[in-house]
Write a structure and sequence with these properties.
The chain is α+β, with helices and mostly antiparallel strands and 168 residues long. The protein has two domains: 1-29, no CATH class; 31-159, Nucleoside Triphosphate Pyrophosphohydrolase. The protein contains two helices and nine strands. Strand 4 and strand 5 (59-60) form a beta hairpin.
Length: 168
Amino acid sequence: MIERHCIRCGAPLAGEPPTCSSCGHVHWRDPKVAACAIFRWRGDIFLMRRAIPPGYGRWTFPGGYVDRGETVEAAAIREVREEAGCEVRLTDLLGIYSYPGQTAILVIYRAEVVSGEPHCRSESLEARAFPDTDLPWRELAFPSTVEALRDYLEADAHPDRRGRSRNL
């Protein structure tokens, strides 16, 4: 089935991939793999307030779609570089997150900064590191953001549970 109208707001779609002419939602026809990384900066968890929809104005960690021919690991590192302006090393897989009716499959890694200082870039309104006890839970962008941050904190408390998919 080829959509002609946005499933979010009903406005006409145009272009390839089909994009809403009103709200800008991209209508991917196949599952999209997104690669993300959660890391600490000076002991606190680094988050960014999104400057783009969906989730505009809400907090999340760096991540985005894997490009054709790119490994998931390379995509996670690239997304951190593009969105936070620093280089990271992936330390382990935090989990894989998918949801009924959603196009994106998120592969989220734990990482550590190896060079540069993470900061606000073009896709963010603000960037900062939060102490574990002061995360902006009510202002997080997506259910996956909430679940992954909970899993990240749990993995810190119980290293033997790292690398498991939440959906198994």
